[in-house]
Design goal:
The protein is an alpha/beta fold. It is 26% helix and 26% strand. It binds adenosine-5-diphosphoribose and zinc ion (2 copies). The site of one zinc ion has 6 residues, from loops. It is an enzyme of class 1 (oxidoreductase).
Length: 361
């Protein structure tokens, strides 16, 4: 059997997305068909539409999603029809060198659904990040589904599937933020704000938010920042040092993805502190640092890939914290929109007042 559903498709480089009817096959071995309930609009979707990822148009966009498993294929035992799940874009293999060494977050043998979703004329779709959830139903690998408590709002839960997990994970997994630590977060968009929320969860005593936009700083405060620095008005490094008794922060999280903000992170940390790069640089960007400073300052420089998350460990835990009122995921949902409004959400993305627009079905 196949299913015909409405979906948001990017047909060509830079062209506005269109609402299409697509054909979704029943799940094959190891696959699951998910009825999507909500899916956030992420910068990466726009990046796909602009041709910045690759040229495999048409793309079926959307990847920050939660929904209910409708049916599963042969051999699927981890999830069952009726389960409320968050989708992830890294279903690890379990067999490669990284997986066998207990570091599945570095598995690059990840897999998506094998069968193809298509347009009505049979043209194969490339699902964004192997998910494609701006669709009433989508086909994924069962390993991309993590069951969580049904009591969570789908709009909030879906955000854990990408940007919010990246930020929280940068703090709690990669940065290893601990009780009493001082943390600085440079760049307070969705990812940086999530790093702030994660630092608060981890028990950081001092959380310094750095941004160039006062509105962002205000929002950061509501998520747990104890101090804010507008780095257009004052020097970020000096301000961070001043707020940490002259030392610098134990952990600095860079959530912009630019050489100048990375430098601020590098010099804004305490000797032997940790810098976490979660902002994604472009291929042209280069970083120049005196090697003597790298040597002399010690500590560690890390990058955070998908928040170093393990969906099966992190998603249910974070949903529990959310349901207990200890992690405000709803704060990341700026607006809920209809499927036909994804293009408008792309336009609003650069306005500075939207953390996440979320399509709710
Ligand atoms: N210094 C400080 N903050 C800055 C600077 C700067 N020079 N330039 C931009 N910012 C702030 C913006 O004002 C905004 O609040 O960084 C924030 C970026 O937020 P978003 O554009 O909403 O991006 P976000 O979704 O948070 O992602 C941030 O992480 O995962 C990556 O690809 C993603 O590189 C991106 C980064
Ligand atoms: Zn693997
Ligand atoms: Zn994303």
């Amino acid at each position: 059997m196949t299913h015909q559903v409405r979906a948001v498709v990017a047909r060509g480089k830079g062209a506005p997305v269109s609402l299409e009817t697509i054909v979704v096959p029943d799940p094959g071995p190891g696959e699951a068909l998910v009825k999507v309930e909500a899916c956030g609009v992420c910068h990466t979707d726009l990046h796909y539409r602009e041709g910045g990822i690759n040229d495999d148009f048409p793309f079926l966009l959307g990847h920050e999603a939660a929904g209910v498993v409708e049916s599963v294929g042969e051999g699927v035992t981890d999830v069952a029809p009726g389960d409320f799940v968050i989708l992830n874009w890294r279903a690890v293999c379990g067999n490669c060198r990284a997986c066998r060494r207990g570091r599945p977050q570095y598995c690059f043998n990840t897999h998506n659904a094998k069968q193809k979703m298509t347009l009505l004329d049979g043209t194969e779709l490339s699902p964004a990040l192997g998910i494609g959830a701006f669709a009433e139903k989508t086909l994924v690998a069962a390993g991309q589904c993590t069951k969580v408590d049904r009591a969570a709002s789908a709009a909030a839960a879906g955000l854990l599937g990408c940007g919010v997990m990246a930020g929280i994970g940068a703090a709690i997994n990669t940065g290893n933020v601990g009780r009493g630590d001082s943390v600085a977060v440079i760049g307070c968009g969705g990812v940086g704000d999530a790093a702030i929320a994660g630092s608060r969860l981890a028990g950081a005593a001092r959380i310094i938010a750095v941004d160039i936009d006062d509105r962002k700083l205000e929002k950061a405060r509501s998520l747990g920042a104890t101090h804010t620095v507008n780095s257009k008005e004052s020097d970020a490094v000096e301000a961070i040092r001043e707020l940490t008794g002259g030392f610098g922060a134990d952990v600095v999280i860079e959530a912009v993805g630019r050489p100048e903000t990375y430098k601020q992170a590098f010099y804004g940390r305490d000797l032997a502190g940790t810098v976490v790069l979660v902002g994604v640089p472009t291929p042209e960007m280069k970083l120049e640092l005196p090697l003597l400073d790298v040597f002399g300052r010690g500590g560690s420089l890390k990058s955070s890939w998908y928040g170093d998350c393990l969906p099966s460990r992190d998603f249910p835990m974070l949903i529990d914290l959310y349901l207990q009122g200890r992690l405000d995921l709803d704060a990341f949902v700026t607006e809920t929109i209809a499927l036909e409004d994804v293009e408008k959400a792309f336009e609003r993305m650069h306005g500075g007042d939207v953390l996440r627009s979320v399509v709710v079905f």
